[in-house]
Amino acid sequence: MAKEVVASPGAMYNALTNGSKIVGKIFADSDFRIDGEVEGTITCNGKVVIGQKGFLKGSISCVNAEIIGTVEGDIVVTETLSLRGTAIIKGDVKTKVLMVEPNAIFNGTCSMKDNVSVSAE
To answer: pTM value?
Structure first.
């Protein structure tokens, strides 16, 4: 009897490592982790993680997001946005659920609704 191997789609993600920089638009169907620098927009059908050394100057549109580093721009999240204690956000946020740890810095406006939609550019 042959065993069927099933790959977990949750195990696949994209990453931009520390020391790397992208200028432009990023479109991703699966999760995306940024530990480098992005100047532009990120549109993702999964979770976006901005790591502790990660920096984004632009906008994020995604299903879930976890910000540990810095974002200068607008964030649209259809489900949950988590701001960790080292997060720095300068921009407006639209999300369904917002979780903020102590010491996180958030300068901007926040709109929370049940039906946030991600607009593709």
So the answer is: 0.84
